[in-house]
Amino acid sequence: MGMMKFEVPHTLSKDDARKRVEQLLKYWTDKYGVKADWSGDGAKVIGKVMGINLDASFTITDGAIQGEGTDPGMLLRGQAKSYLQKKFSTVLDPSKSADEVDKGLA
Description:
Layout: E1 3-9, H1 14-32, E2 35-39, E3 42-49, E4 52-60, E5 64-70, H2 74-91, H3 98-105
Antiparallel strand pairs: 1-5, 2-3, 3-4, 4-5
Helix pairs in contact: 1-3
């Protein structure tokens, strides 16, 4: 299976972006049993989200989250990419506080 690349821009500090991404990963862990392994400014994520196998890695930089994951195939590619973009964009929204982000994930 091929790889699918993604990039989600943000305007937060790298530390704030990481804290918010940690909230997202905790949500995925609690809801779907996804496992996340952090190393520096990046993480490896393995599990199944909404029925789609997720095997991805990403890095938080000073302006974006960049990563790649296993391509779920032509039929689910658009859905998977859209879901990742939406979730990362939601948690990285600078107009929301970290508490609002946390409540919005539930």
